[in-house]
Structure formats: structure tokens, C-alpha cells
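seq as requested:
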Amino acid sequence: MDSLWVAWAWAGQLPANVVARTLSIAVPLFLVVYFGVRARQSPIFLLGVPAVLLMGRSAFIDTYAWSATLFSWTIDVGDVMLVGLVILWLYVREARPRHKPMLLGVESLVFIALAMLCCIEVASTLAGGSELPSILRAARRFIYPTIGYFIWYDMLRRFTSREVMALLESLVAVAIGLTLLYCAQALGLAVYPYTAYVTVTAGRSTFARDFLTFSPFAGLALAYLLSHPEARWRWVAGMAITSAGFMLTFTRSWIAAALVATSISAVYFSTRFGGGRRRAAAVIGIGLSAAVGLAGVYVISSDSVQAIGTRFAEARSAGLAAPNLKARSQPAQEIAKALSRNGAILIGVGFVPYGTVPGYLRASTAFVNWGDSTWNGVLAYTGAAGTALFGCVLLACLVLGLKLARTEAGRARFGLMLALVFAQMIVVSFFSDNYLGLGVMSGMFFACLTVARYSLWGETAVPVRGTVDPGARDLGPAQHRGAL
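C-alpha cells:
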């Protein structure tokens, strides 16, 4: 314990710019080399490139400030990810020409309906006098997840189940490493060269609370760990780090999402998998590993646990009148009333730029702050139709993931993992934009579900070691050594 404190104190004495500059070079370089080397084993790891861009500041790549203009088109990181994904899609089609036919499930049909709705929104906004480039810029947030879904669907069906799982596991490993850096920053070490979004004070300590440096794949990491419990120190360490990271966001919605995912996993393993002892081992292992993470945070800084408790105490004392809940629910009510009074409740105001939003909506206190809630923006721009369709995608995929979790062991773990991802998305979407904000990368999770449901995995034999096979019909020791 003394050596831990000495190491922490020594790290805290290093000049902030030295640590931040070193990591700003080392982390992106490592990620490029990591995915590049693994791409020699299978081209699926090239798909880690757009994932690295999505990681943004958490991977020391300041995409938040990216902006350029080309032929009157304002380019942002979402555009770059889309172009990169299309280039990789064209390459994958040549590298893996053999594939199984695409099948349309419920989620596929909803995405087709969303594409049709987006076309209607573009046409109606264009008829209202707006210029096409500005309409398309406003439409990106809604169109990109749909485009991403079908691109990812076509790519993933060309790879084997082991390759797809290997890509997801690599994203999980990277997310855990970045979460460890996030924890260090939150607890006082100057890790990132960016100004924290906000600080939290408790006792004599001040903690950084920055959503932009929290890995966007932390939810995937938590879902993977909860769906693949193992009697290994690496799993315990990963679960402890991820749990600590969620706690140190000091954000009630993220913590609530983690608790919901953990509860679903605990119920699943307590009722579904293995014998009595194996069930108990899985549930107890999940709980103890999360407790290890929280205990580690407490040992390093007990004030941080006090800060977390204070955040929840505020919400409990204020009840439904808590300011953060009002900031989400009240605008939604005002947006719905404003749209209803002006006959736009069905399809909203369309894809209009901010400066040309109808006065009846812009003049109210209701106008959209995407950082507060996904659904306020969806309701304002696409009305009840868009809200229903975007909500239906998440709910349908959550149900289908849980249904897949009741099949044979290999696919069951894969289905449970995806269901936990969608459950977290649903919870957090009411308090931030961790749904449509993922852009084309959100399509990866939905496409994984479709390919797994219909077993549309590719048939090209590529050796990928150390990977759970979601296409397997049984869970033998060779496939998942050490599984609880």
C-alpha cells in the first residue's frame, strides 16, 4: 500500500505539460500501430480506424475542435468517419467478395422507415425555402446512424464470428486502458491537455468531470465484461477499472446506466446459465469486482466517494423536481405544445439550420440542447414520427438482444452483450446524446445484432486467437477457458 501512495505522489509531482504531451503522442501512435499490426491478421481491424476517431479526446485526438469548409460544406468528424467507413467498405467488398445474402429483420425495416422519413423531412424543408447544403448539414445527425447500419451490415457479414468478436474485444481492451487514464485525471493527475468540462469539489479535494475524455466505448467494455464473466485476474481488473470509471464520471445517468446493465446481467446469470454454484459464482464475481473498483477509488481518495454520494443525495432530496430532470422534461413538454399549436407535431420543423428555426420554437426556452437529451432534439426536428421510430429501434434491439441471449451459449453471451449496450443507450439518451451522437459508429452495434440473429457470419477461415466465438453452439473449455 505504501508503494502505491509513493507512486501516486510521484506521478502527481511531474509537470502537467510533460505527462500530457507525452501521452498526446504515445496514445494515438499506439492505437494506430495496434490496429495496423492486427490488420495484418485480418482486415476487420482496419475498422478500428473510424473507432479511434470516435474516441476523440479520450484517445488524445481533439476531434471536438475539428472543423473545415469545402465548397460551402462545413466538415466535422462525423463526415470524416463516414468517408473513412465508405472507403473501408469498398476495400472489404474486394477483400471478402464471398458473403451470405442480407436478410431484413425488424430493426432493418425500422431503419428503412427512418431513411424514408429523412427523405420526407429533406423534401419538406426544401419546399419551405431552405437551401439544400444547409438542410443536409442539419440532417447528418439523423441520417448517419441509418447509413452506418447498412454499411456495417454489409461488412460484418463478410467476416467470421470470431473476427467480429476479436474486433469488439480489441475495442474493449482499448476502452479499459483509456478508462484507467480517465480515472487518473478525475482523481487529480494532469493526464489530458484539455480544460475539464466542470469540476466537482468534496472535502479538500477537487475532481475533474469531463465527458469528452470518457471513452465512448466504456459502455461496450462494461457490457462485454458483464456478459463474459471469467475466473481470471484480467477480467477482475477490467471490471474494477470500468466500474471505477463510471463512478468517477460523477454523472448520475451514466452510473444509473451501469447499474441497470449490472442488474440485467445478474438476473440473467442467476436464472439462466449453468448450475447453482456457477450461477452464484458469476453473480458474486460481478458484484465483488465492481466493489474492488469502488474500494480502489476510496483508498486513493475518500473525498471522491463523498462527491458521488452527494450527487445522489441531491437527486434523492429533490425528487422529481431535481434541476437536471426539469432541464430535460420541461423543454420536451414545451416543444410538444409548440409543435401541436402550429400543426407540426407529426414530422417536426424539419432539417432546418438553427438560424431559420420557426420563431414559435426558437423563442421559447424549449429549443434543443443536444447535450441535455437526445429526445428533445429528435422531437423538435422530426416530430412524433421520428421520436417513435428512433425509440422503436432501441427498444426492438434491446428485446431482440435479450431474446438472442436465450439461445445456445455462444450466441447467448453475444446477445446479452448487445442487449446491455442498448439498455445503457436508452438510459443515457434521456440525459445526453450518446445515441445519435455516435454517428455512423452506432450502426456497428445494430448491425452486429442483425448478423448474429440470422447467423450471417462469413465463412473465410482466418485464425484469430483468444476470442470467444459468438457463432458457436456450445461453450467448451477451448472456446472460453475460465468462464464462470
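Residues 15-453 form one domain.
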